[in-house]
Amino acid sequence: MESRNGAIISGFIAGLILDLSPTIDSPFGQWTLILTIVGYVVSVNREGMGDFDTRPLTLAFIIAGAATLTLVLFLIATSILGESNTTLSASMRELIGNFLWTLLLSPLYVPLMNRFHLVTQSSRDRR
Q1: Residue among 49, 70, 69, 71 nearest 59 (CA)
Q2: 15, 21, 64, 90: which could form a disulfide with 32 (CB 3.0–4.6 Å)?
Q3: Which tens digit of pLDDT belongs to each residue from 107-121?
Q4: What does the domain layout of the chain look like in residue ranges?
């Protein structure tokens, strides 16, 4: 339960930071909603995903899938709000490119974040 709350709160905070960014051209709260939903979906399915220490390729696919799901939800929300200015083929190219780049770069990025997480944990959290 605590892991689920942490993922949801992390998604909310990341979305809030994106919404407060002056370079983002979307309605306020859209990124917060989307990243909170993705954090919830990933945290609910975390137990069924297994141990990532023995299967790092699975983790890379999950990260790439979550990033792609985030963009798909953003495109759906944008089209519902009537702000879509792109074609379907351009959106598909961007989604596929984002999936592939995330899949290639996540094996480099995730170990660094895991190490950072271990360094920043308190002694109570390490138990």
Answers
A1: 49
A2: 15
A3: 888 888 778 877 887
A4: 1-49, 51-127
Average the pLDDT over 65-82 and give the result.
Answer: 90
Euclidean distance between CA atoms 124 and 127, whole angstroms: 6
Left (φ > 0), alpha (ψ -120 to 50) or beta: where does 24 sit?
Answer: beta
The reported pLDDT for the residue numbered 92 is 93
Please write down the long-range contacts of 43-48, taking CB distance under 8 Å and 24 or more positions apart.
43/3, 43/4, 43/6, 43/7, 43/8, 44/4, 46/3, 46/4, 46/7
Specify the higher pLDDT residue, 83 or 39: 39
**Residue 27: which residues within 8 A CB-CB, separation 6 or more?**
81, 83
Number of Cβ within a 10 Å radius of residue 71: 16
